[in-house]
Sequence to fold (308 residues):
Amino acid sequence: MSRPAYVTSGPYAPPAAARELTVRSADGARLHVEVHGPEGAPPVVLAHGWTCSTAFWAAQIRDLAADHRVIAYDQRGHGRSPSSPTCTVEALADDLEAVFSATLVPGEKAVVVGHSMGGMTVLAAAARPRFQAHTAAVLLCSTGSARLVAEARVLPMRAGPVRTWLTTRVLGSRAPLGPVTPVSLRILKYATMGAGSTPLMVEACARVVHGCPREVRHAWSRMLQALDLERGVRELTVPTEVVVGTADRLTPPVHTRALVAALPHCVGSTELPGLGHMTPVEAPELVTGKIRELVAAYAGDAQVKEGA
Fold:
């Protein structure tokens, strides 16, 4: 079945890139990368989450590209990046490093934004020299470092072994999501978004999530079930801010509070009342504003661009 089209109008319609490139990761995996905005502007790198794509960041790209160089890429197997047999946190870190190498000049530092699995990508790469050389600050949206399945609240049950077992089967299902329908929209909204999400927000997210092949969705779910990146949290020494929705059923606020307690240089934490897991879509102005603030505080004029 072909992937559904993204929404084509409104703030969540993916804008055209200034340029596109294919980047090869350490194991040869090909990654689709988009660059938006003027060359020479402060760079922002966007890493999306599980089952998403660069289209997930449409609202941020549309705003930031006016005066930032926005670099967005499809995680392997997602969007326009071909699938890969390697689905590990190490591969995620390799891919982010490859994007840095292809889009940033030596000495250039970006604000790096990770949502959900994209935040886990940041944690996986935190100790790597290339990440440290190219990262001015980080924004983590709706993410966690461990115990993802045990803490997930997708199923309305009391926490414990039974809920964890059932959640593992639900999130790891190989079943196709099928076309976007009124029923599937209601299911996606319940699982991933807050009750106040508008129909346009839900439609935009559904088009993105339903576009992820079921084999890719299943393969990466297995990695997420065994995730343990608590060491990566301690190794993320750059200024880091975190955002979460209080109604997030996939990575509830318990994860954000653990991050805040363990991060070496946490510069802010925001819990958004009633919002779900898709914070960049549900609160686009706030998330974009946080990115702008981090650029102004830690990047911007402080950029060192050797050879630029």
